[in-house]
Amino acid sequence: xxxxxxxxxxxxxxxxxxxxxxxxxxxxxxxxxxxxxxxxxxxxxxxxxxxxxxxxxxxxxxxxxxxxxxxxxxxxxxxxxxxxxxxxxxxxxxxxxxxxxxxxxxxxxxxxxxxxxxxxxxxxxxxxxxxxxxxxxxxxxxxxxxxxxxxxxxxxxxxxxxxxxxxxxxxxxxxxxxxxxxxxxxxxxxxxxxxxxxxxxxxxxxxxxxxxxxxxxxxxxxxxxxx
Length: 227
Prior knowledge:
By secondary structure, the chain is mainly alpha-helical. Helix content is 39%, strand content 0%.
């Protein structure tokens, strides 16, 4: 690993043509799209260099990372095959310089008009009145959707429901006024039933339950009771 402290003039240096070529190869290897024009990758390289020039830290990180990349293999990075180049990038994927390249590429490569054309994207439509009258369904690189199912497929017949469906307006069904099931009208089985012994002579002779408290309060409410 090469450290900036060993090279006091590192901050004043700019990327050499070879370093730019290595940077471009990194972008193409990390984002392989055979249909993308070479100009799009070249513009992406220039964008990363511009972003690095605006920050001393990223300029040092990028320069240091490109130097360290050469020590990852015996052959120069530009001479590696695509498979070996990808393997080298996997080994440095956690380094700061590669994270800077990846973030900047994700945010800018797919915003290139030539990349839009390669992907079949027609660009923004708001300023052109939308896609409805501009061929929103004219993509010729998507497979034609199958509308009909295969000949040997059949839809199973579910038949009638195994229970009766309540219809609005039928008496005795939930939702009818005065019928069980209407909001505010509990079903008969859910209504509290009166205690059969509540009004019996035995209950009257026993008096109120002790826990109710009415036995101690009743004399006072009638104005009687012992002092």
